[in-house]
């Protein structure tokens, strides 16, 4: 049986990291695509030359042409400008939207059957634009944010409690920005509800750090995070390619779920498998969390309203 094909549009820090991780996991052949001449080809060759010690057979190639999207089973889009110190994700909307328009048209033409994962910021607006441009079924176009935000929350809870991060289950809802909502009662540690282990005041501080986690890394690196976004994107691709039925939080299109109308994309728990987003899981929230979620959705709507003025 032929290996699956995974196209990575954008061969920057995230794209290069994804190429390596996808190869290690042997999820399929990888095609790195970028407008920068030599960059996708060079990174692909670098990973290819490590196949012997990694004991893998996957083929990793680089290209400067969208024609090489053809035949892709999954397309992960990171193309765009990363944040710099002092910038918010929303500051990038006018810069990255034209890029997403170009990429979306190429995917629509060259890879009409692909499952599309958008990573470009501002995330919720960019995945909304991608689905609008491609016209793909909402189940086949998603945004990578909730997996990352929930992973960051789990990391900080584990650090605070001095436990292993893989024992922590956490959920962060809403837009991928400062208004994201960490759910106190939905966190557990080794099956133990977090309220039995951590007071709400401490959790509030951790929630704030989670919402600001991307900014914290930008201030340190002088550019956007890339290891964790790359690995979280691969997690989503893996759930789709292997039909894992994984429960993941991602930016999914909402048509009434969680009370959100208008087809906005927002971070919510979903079941992800071979059908893409196979189910959206609605969970209970406190009144305080509902209010915070509504505020986050309002921020997302403002971004998407701008997209609507640019894409008819």
Task: Report the biggest beta sheet as strand number plus sense, adding barrel if it closes.
Answer: 6 strands, parallel
Q: Number of helix segments? A: 10
Strand order of the largest sheet: 3-2-1-4-5-6
Gyration radius, in Å: 19 Å
Number of strands: 14
What do you see in this structure?
With 312 residues, this protein is an alpha/beta fold. 43% of the residues lie in helices and 19% in strands. It has 10 helices and 14 strands. The chain has helices at residues 13-25, 39-48, 51-54, 93-110, 123-134, 146-161, 200-211, 213-221, 227-241, 287-310; strands spanning 5-9, 29-33, 60-63, 74-77, 115-118, 141-143, 168-169, 172-173, 181-182, 188-189, 192-193, 246-254, 264-273, 276-280. Strands 3-2-1-4-5-6 form a 6-stranded parallel beta sheet, with helices on both faces. Helix 1 (13-25) packs parallel to helix 2, helix 1 (13-25) crosses helix 9 (227-241) and helix 6 crosses helix 7 (200-211). It is globular, with a radius of gyration of 19 Å. The relative contact order is 0.14. The mean pLDDT is 95.
Give me a quick take on this structure.
With 312 residues, the protein is an alpha/beta fold.
């Amino acid at each position: 049986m032929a290996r699956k094909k995974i196209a990575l549009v954008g061969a920057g820090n995230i794209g290069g990291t994804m190429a390596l991780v996808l190869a290690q996991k042997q999820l399929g052949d990888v095609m790195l695509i970028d407008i920068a001449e030599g960059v996708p080809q060079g990174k692909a060759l670098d990973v290819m030359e490590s196949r012997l010690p990694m004991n893998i057979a996957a083929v990793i190639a680089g290209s400067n042409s969208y024609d090489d999207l053809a035949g892709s089973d999954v397309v992960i889009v990171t193309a765009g400008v990363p944040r710099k110190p002092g910038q918010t994700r929303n500051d990038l909307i006018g810069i990255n939207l034209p890029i997403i328009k170009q990429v979306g048209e190429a995917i629509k033409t060259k890879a009409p059957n692909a499952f599309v994962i958008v990573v470009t910021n501002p995330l919720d607006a960019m995945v909304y634009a991608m689905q609008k441009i491609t016209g793909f079924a909402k189940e086949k176009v998603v945004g990578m944010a909730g997996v990352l935000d929930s992973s960051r929350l789990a990391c900080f809870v584990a650090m605070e409690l001095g436990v292993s991060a893989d024992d922590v289950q956490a959920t962060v809802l809403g837009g991928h920005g400062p208004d994201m909502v960490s759910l106190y009662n939905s966190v557990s540690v080794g099956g133990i509800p977090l309220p039995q282990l951590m007071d709400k005041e401490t959790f509030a501080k951790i929630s704030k750090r989670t919402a600001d986690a991307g900014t914290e890394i930008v201030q340190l690196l002088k550019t956007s995070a890339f290891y964790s976004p790359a690995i979280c994107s691969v997690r989503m691709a893996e759930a789709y390619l292997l039909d894992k039925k994984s429960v993941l939080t991602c930016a999914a299109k909402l048509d009434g779920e969680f009370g959100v109308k208008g087809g906005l994309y927002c971070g919510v728990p979903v079941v992800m498998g071979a059908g893409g987003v196979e189910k959206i899981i609605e969970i209970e929230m406190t009144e305080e969390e509902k209010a915070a979620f509504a505020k986050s959705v309002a921020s997302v709507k403002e971004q998407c309203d701008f997209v609507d003025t640019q894409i008819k």
